[in-house]
């Protein structure tokens, strides 16, 4: 009995028991964890898998292999599918070279199916704005009153940067508000909801979907208006156009007056 009691009180007993428990926990985890991973892999959406493959080739060098961001590009976790559809659909991304901001290009480098796949993968990284349905941005069926209200909303919320006609304007630090001429309703909606580059985010609480539709309707209607001649001056507005009219008109009269005065002095 004394021998057994000595073995129980051996100083190495507790560390050995602890090591044995840790070994057993590690063994159980190694058995369970791969099985969970395998199930997750087999249940992966094929579109997300395709998007991941394209992302690794196209986007990971700047945004990281898991979209976590690098010194060359921001994190994409939580930006949502709408941000990807906007940036790649307007050919701002992939960005050709570093600049103050990415310009819009006419021809997307990727097909819409490839853009959808990358958008689905980025959406799987974290919840964010989804690509909108057509009913949220189509201006078809809007009344003249709703389009006029869209103009008021645009002048209140957007014209300070994008110009009263949506032709764009300069911003500090080499940035600029791009022209909205020729931009699709879907991309305008996505820009409002995701806030690309220098633009703030307009949530549904700030601008409900109906307001966005009316703004899009105003821009599309304004774009279709004919130009009856004269210098539009980029649609800057009546104050600036009046200033240029005064400068050119009155300035010309002053120059003529100076010339006549000099000619009269010479005649004497």
Automatic annotation (TrEMBL):
InterPro entries: bc1_cytC-su, Cyt_c-like_dom, Cyt_c-like_dom_sf, Cytochrome_c_Oxidase_Subunit. It catalyses: a quinol + 2 Fe(III)-[cytochrome c](out) = a quinone + 2 Fe(II)-[cytochrome c](out) + 2 H(+)(out). Residues 46-126, 145-223 form the Cytochrome c domain. It is a multi-pass membrane protein. It comes from the Bacteria. Keywords: Cell membrane, Electron transport, Heme, Iron, Membrane, Metal-binding, Repeat, Respiratory chain, Translocase, Transmembrane, Transmembrane helix, Transport. Its main location: membrane. Pfam families: Cytochrom_C (PF00034), Cytochrome_CBB3 (PF13442). It is found in: Cell membrane. The keyword Electron transport applies. The chain crosses the membrane at residues 243-261. The cytochrome bc1 complex is composed of a cytochrome b (QcrB), the Rieske iron-sulfur protein (QcrA) and a diheme cytochrome c (QcrC) subunit. This is Cytochrome bc1 complex cytochrome c subunit. It comes from Luteococcus peritonei. The lineage of its organism: Bacteria, Bacillati, Actinomycetota, Actinomycetes, Propionibacteriales.
